[in-house]
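note to self — DONT lose this again. spent like an hour looking for the file last time. sequence + predicted structure for the chain T wanted, 377 res
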Amino acid sequence: MIELAVPAAAAERPPLAMTGRPHLAVRDIVKSYGGKSYGGASRAVDGVTLALAKGEFVTLLGDSGCGKTTLLRIIAGFVRPDSGQVTRGGQDVTETAPARRRMGFVFQSYALFPTKTVADNIGFALAIAARGRAEREQRIGELARLVEMERLLERHPHELSGGQQQRVALARALASDPEVLLLDEPMSALDARIRVKLRNELRMIIDRLGITTLYVTHDQEEALALSDRVAVMRNGRIEQIGTPTEIYHRPCSAFVAQFVGTSNLVEGHAAAGGVDAYGELWPMAFPTDIRPRQPVMAVYRPEHIAVACEGQGLAGRVVSSAFLGAVVRLTVTLDSGRTVIVDCPSHQAERFGARGASVTLIPDAERAVLVPAQALS
């Protein structure tokens, strides 16, 4: 898994305060699939509770099959939960038809009508609502300008690029003036360069409109770059929810540490000055409630381990290096046999980045994070 730096925009964006009731909330949502004929029911969503403030952008992040899309479709009304409640603005909408929930939905496949023009796709919900022609044309024009598609209104989907189709799908979802916007991996089919450009534009549009947004993705960089908060899902449950900075720098578990970015996980016992990992001492600033010899697991991010040619620290040899632009990623095998991933500034890499070079690693004790000891995946 590649290393992810927390984007400055995400890290600096002030969190929205939850004043009063949440604008969108789910409580104790459960959804199972299968049954006796399928070898027993499997819980796709397992007791999820989540609340969003008005105007907040929250991302559901997780691997395929973790339940994030099922949860999104339950909120939209496309899937009925076995139990639990969905509310919007304090109103229970669990049994409300999708068209009456005041929610816009952007599908992974865009789901544009192939025989309709861009204008007709954007205005579809307005036509269904029997809005007048003048009103429809005005709204279509406003949305087309918002997503920069005003010059392509007469084109059909097959005449558009993937990025342009995504813009049309977003405009269509916004046409009915929803209170909540739901997006299911809308950029997964786009190439990396276009994806970065469009995600920045998406966030600016949503900020301009002030619309409450729930976004689904498996892309950690996308989640960190876009979100006010990120909810990491695993096996139908939310493993951790927090700001991008909290998720990256203070993971609550080994799973989150491994899933979001790259981590070195060190298992051992608490000792004076750090983690005693079978003879290796990894510097660690322990909280006061940690007892000597207590089993612990610590997370060390690659950028929090310094590299030196000699001195006190963890001795090892460089077995590989990868140039990543601002940093060079070193894979180091310690004398103990442990493999460690380290990010070294590019301008320093020439000193000790050669394969086979002897190096000393110096972990930052203040940046290490304790997580519950558990079996590693």
